[in-house]
Specification:
Blueprint: H1 2-10, H2 36-45, E1 73-78, E2 83-90, E3 92-97, E4 100-104, E5 111-115, E6 118-124, E7 127-133, E8 136-140, E9 145-150, E10 153-155, H3 161-177, H4 181-202
Parallel strand pairs: 1-9
Antiparallel strand pairs: 1-2, 3-4, 3-6, 5-8, 6-7, 7-10, 8-9
Helix pairs in contact: 3-4
Main location: mitochondrion
Organism: Fagus sylvatica (Beechnut)
Keywords: ATP synthesis, CF(1), Hydrogen ion transport, Ion transport, Membrane, Mitochondrion, Mitochondrion inner membrane, Transit peptide, Transport
């Protein structure tokens, strides 16, 4: 078995035929809303009853990638329990990626970024709306659409600075007195979160 594994590893990873760049999902043609293969299979088995709708039938067609860079970035900003922004056209957003602050403009390269505790800034002309997010992901598409999915988010102006300072002091005390790995981990998370909140308010 090990000899076979060695032979497989020795093979070239990419052949000349498969070395072409894989297209992004936004580069693919827009598919029909109906799942044709499912419908065909259903009609063969139960031709007298209309097939049920699949999740694909409820999805809007994916916008195609424009030939030129649009002037606006379309943003969807959602939480598990609410939608903060839905198809909102803005000039730019800045997200707190784990690799650092990331500015996203129209025409940005397709990217997936993990979010860390920090501020999401939404820029519309001279107006800037800021949200503090705990964590999540951002999906930047090649067609100048951006989907920001956060676990928790709150507008910066709704955060109480006194409660942030109180929480930071409490978790700092817990970290210094923690005796188990679990207590240290929980306290460290609290310190990092409240430090990010404090920086968002004062930075």
């Amino acid at each position: 078995m090990f000899r076979r594994a060695t032979g497989l590893l020795a093979r070239p990873i990419l052949s000349s035929a498969s070395s072409r760049a894989r297209p992004f999902s936004t580069d693919l043609p827009v598919s029909d809303s109906a799942d044709s293969s499912f419908v065909d299979a259903w009609k063969k088995v139960i031709p007298n009853i209309d097939p049920p709708k699949t999740p694909v039938a409820f999805m809007k067609p994916r916008p195609t990638t424009p030939s030129s860079i649009p002037t606006k970035l379309t943003v969807n900003f959602v939480l598990p329990y609410a939608s903060e922004l839905a198809s909102k056209e803005v000039d730019m957003i800045i997200i707190p990626a784990t690799t650092g602050q990331m500015g996203v403009l129209p025409g940005h390269v397709a990217t997936i970024a993990e979010l860390k505790p920090g501020v999401v800034s939404v820029h519309e002309g001279n107006d800037v709306t800021k949200y503090f997010v705990s964590s999540g992901f951002a999906f930047i598409h090649a067609n100048s659409y951006a989907d920001v999915i956060a676990v928790e988010a709150v507008p910066i102006d709704q955060i109480d600075p006194n409660l942030v300072q109180k929480g930071l002091a409490e978790f700092t005390q817990k970290l210094s007195s923690a005796s188990t790995d679990l207590e240290k981990a929980e306290a460290q998370i609290g310190v990092e979160l409240h430090s990010a909140l404090n920086f968002a308010l004062t930075g």
